[in-house]
Design goal:
Number of strands: 12
CATH architecture of the domain at 10-140 and 272-320: 2-Layer Sandwich
Radius of gyration: 20 Å
Order of helices and strands: HEEEEHEEHEHHHEEEEHHEH
Strand content: 15-25%
CATH topology of the domain at 10-140 and 272-320: BirA Bifunctional Protein, domain 2
Shape: globular
């Protein structure tokens, strides 16, 4: 007997995923967005300190040198190289990998939809995501609130101008007993968001949060005038579904962000990650003004089917392969 026994709805689950993928492909075909495929493995990895990459060793026993490759945590870098070389609007459906992520909402191997729209601003991309959600039957409308407005509404906190002590006091007043963050503004603000705000987001309708603090820009463009990073996240039923940016276009800013990430990794005792020089070189040839988004397809399928755990929408989860 197999050690994994499909539930009675197994065939229906397979059909729901196949239907969702077919609808997504139809959606982009109607908008003349090209489907692409990029490699899973790369000599360079994701420098983000919050993300741990899966590493594969492609060395042969007869060779003395090591040939280590990173499994992609998203297809972002090779897709941006395609954009820099004139691909135009593109999307990809693929498997991605993140180490030590397993639980109700996480599986180390999961499915992602990522797309880039030259010429569209990030609020226009949110509009397009809304149209996709409507097509998939997830919602007929969405809500959209800035990061600063969100903290003001839920916690009466001016988060963009708050000190670390302000964030600590807010946590204490809310009954959160947290230690270990020291004076890390991003750690405290993210903790408040995750514990006190996120669970309520997107319960009635999908919910966009946009314009994050400058320190949480990742690879998004920044607007110094408004003191924000032009970045957004999408929530459905309290679960983050997508993360999008108004994309950086300057190769030197990318380099600086990658170097800052590695400094943070080193300070935290994490291994430094080799910077993707091929990406930087391609960006120098001219990167179009674009917006882009990565959307978790398994979590989206959870929203469509009403599933509670990510394992409920996977053919086989990490513990059954």
């Amino acid at each position: 007997m197999p050690d994994y026994c499909p539930s009675p709805s197994y065939r229906e689950l397979l059909q729901r995923r196949a239907t969702m993928y077919a609808q997504i492909r139809q959606f982009f075909a109607e908008r003349n967005v090209l489907e692409v495929e990029t490699p899973i493995f790369s000599e360079s990895g994701n420098t983000d300190p919050a993300i741990s990459s899966v590493i594969a060793d492609f060395s042969y026993a007869s060779e003395k040198r090591s040939d280590i490759r990173y499994a992609h945590t998203s297809p972002e870098f090779p897709m941006k190289r395609l954009l820099a070389n004139g691909s135009g609007a593109i999307y990809q459906i693929c498997k991605v990998f993140r180490k030590e992520e397993s639980g109700r909402l996480h599986n180390p191997e999961f499915s992602m939809l990522e797309w880039y729209r030259p010429g569209l601003k990030y609020h226009q991309l949110m509009d397009e995501i809304t149209e996709l959600l409507k097509m998939l039957g997830v919602a007929s409308a969405v809500e959209r609130v800035s990061y600063a407005e969100l903290f003001q509404l839920h916690l009466k906190l001016d988060v963009l101008n708050a000190s670390v002590d302000d964030l600590k006091n807010c946590a204490r007043k809310s009954g959160l007993d947290v230690v270990g963050f020291d004076d890390d503004y991003d750690a405290w603000s993210s903790m408040l968001l995750a514990n006190l705000i996120e669970p309520e987001l997107g319960k009635d309708k999908p919910f966009f949060v946009y314009d994050y603090p400058l320190s949480q820009a990742a690879l998004a463009n920044t607007c110094e005038e408004n003191n924000v990073a032009e970045r957004f996240e999408l929530y459905i039923n309290g679960v983050e579904i997508a993360n999008g940016y108004q994309e950086l276009t300057d190769a030197e800013v990318y380099r600086c962000r990658f170097e800052q990430d590695n400094k943070k990794r080193k300070a935290s005792g994490l291994p430094e990650i080799k910077i993707d020089m091929r990406l930087l070189n391609d960006l120098k040839s001219g990167f179009p003004d674009s917006s882009g988004v990565a959307l978790g397809l398994d979590r989206l399928l959870m929203a469509i089917t009403g599933a509670v755990r990510i394992s409920d929408v996977l053919s086989f989860d990490f513990h059954n392969i």
